[in-house]
Each structure stands twice: as C-alpha cells, then as structure tokens.
Amino acid sequence: MRGVTMTMMAVVVVVGTLATAGCGSSEPDASTTPRYGVEPTGSVLEIDPLDSLKGSERYSTDLFGIDVPAGMETSTQTLDNGSEVLVIREQGADRASVIVTVTAQEGATDEHVDVSSIATAARLAGGELVPDLERVPAQWDGMEYADAITGTLHLEVDGAALLKDFVMVTTRDSERTSVVGLSAEAPEGSLESSDAYAVLRTFRFGD
C-alpha cells in the first residue's frame, strides 16, 4: 500500500521538480508570457472556490491557505530541490486525499505552468495507470492561470483493483514567485462530492 501512495506522490512532485526546467535559463519579462504550443486544449474545467468548510481549521503559510476538516491530518516535507509538500489525509489512511506542492520560481509564467503540467501528464499517461487521462484548461476564481489533469487511477492493492478519480491542478501565484501543484482523489464516481475535492476548493493564495 505504501508503494501505491508514493506513486501518486512522485507524480505530483514532478510539478515542482520540472517547474524550473525546460523553460530556458533566461527569465521572461514578467509582463508577458511566451507560448510554445504546450497550453492545454479542450473543454475548460471550472472549479468553484469555497470560502471555508464547516468545522475545519485553516492551514496557512506565507503563500497560501487551505482548510483541513476534522478527521483529517497534515504532514509536510521539503524535497531535495527545495519544493515544499503538504499532504492532507484522513486519519489513519494510507493514501493522501489532497497534496499541495510549492516550488519557488522567480518570474513564474503561464508557460512554467504549462510545461510542468504537460510533463506530469506525460508521466501519468505512460503505461495503463490513467487510460482516460485528459489535460485541459482550468478556470478558478483567484487564479490568474491554471491547467488541470483529470482521469481515473487504475491501481492494484494487495492483488485487488482500486479505482480512484483524481484532479491535478497546476497554477502560479499572481506575484510570480512560485509554481503550485494541487491534487485531490476519491473513489471512482465520487470526486466532485468528496471531502478531498471540497478541501482543494478552499485553497487560495494569501490566506
């Protein structure tokens, strides 16, 4: 089970790891965003923000805040590349419900978001982990730019099939200091009504 959990963690970390790669060494003008054909296409995924969740506590950093409901717990780690990872899971659960990865990126642009997202999608699409993967534009009030990856994880745990619907959003802050990856997952068919998705929707920059 732990190996399965870390598989998803590793994919999310790609968002952070590749945020500083593949975009050249020179910093783009903060007022413009060069495009190289990696922006997502298809129907826009609309994410409705939630101000708060009843009975939750607000987890806050200098960059963002997100609600943690009663019955969920948090853990954090700092990766070798400096990315900060927040994991939110139900108490005693092996798998995370929500993961937030923050990577410092001076002059972060929409292209940094696109490159991170497309690299993560390519890794997920390898093999049969997510046969129905889609990468689409995302619209989320409070986010200047965001991409989303959606699909169903086809996992095997203790010899039994385990299907998990997920959404993975890549975005940046308006101050252009960081690239952020957020993921939420829930049993197949229940993502939009799940606690995990509700938690993700409480994420916002600033508080």
Q: Could you give a quick summary of the protein structure above?
A:
With about 210 residues, this protein is an alpha+beta fold. Helices cover about 20% and strands about 35% of the residues. It contains three helices and eleven strands.
Can you walk through the features of this model?
This protein is an alpha+beta fold. It has a single domain, classed as Protein Transport Mog1p, Chain A. The protein contains 3 helices and 11 strands. It has helices at 2-17, 110-125, 195-201; strands at 45-47, 57-60, 64-68, 72-78, 84-90, 98-104, 134-140, 146-157, 160-172, 178-187, 204-205. The strands form 2 sheets. The protein has an 8-stranded mixed β-sheet with strand order 1-7-8-9-10-6-5-4, with helices on both faces. A hairpin with a 5-residue loop joins strand 9 and strand 10 (178-187). Helix 1 runs antiparallel to helix 2. The longest helix is centred in the first third of the chain and has 16 residues, at 2-17. The protein is globular and about 45 Å long. Mean pLDDT is 85; it is low at 1-8 and 14-34.
CATH architecture, please? 3-Layer(aba) Sandwich
Total DSSP E strands? 11
Helical percentage: 10-25%
Question: What are the low-pLDDT stretches, counting only 5+ consecutive residues below 50?
Answer: 1-8, 14-34
Total helices: the number is: 3
Q: What is the topology, as strand order, of the major beta sheet?
A: 1-7-8-9-10-6-5-4
Radius of gyration: 16 Å
CATH fold call: Protein Transport Mog1p, Chain A
Order of helices and strands: HEEEEEEHEEEEHE
Name of the top-level CATH class: Alpha Beta
Number of domains: 1
Q: Per DSSP, what share of the residues sits in E-state strands of 2 or more residues?
A: 35-45%
Overall average pLDDT: 85
- What structural class is derived from the secondary structure elements? alpha+beta
Taking the alpha carbons of the first and last residues, their distance comes to: 34 Å
Shape descriptor reads globular
Largest sheet: 8 strands, mixed
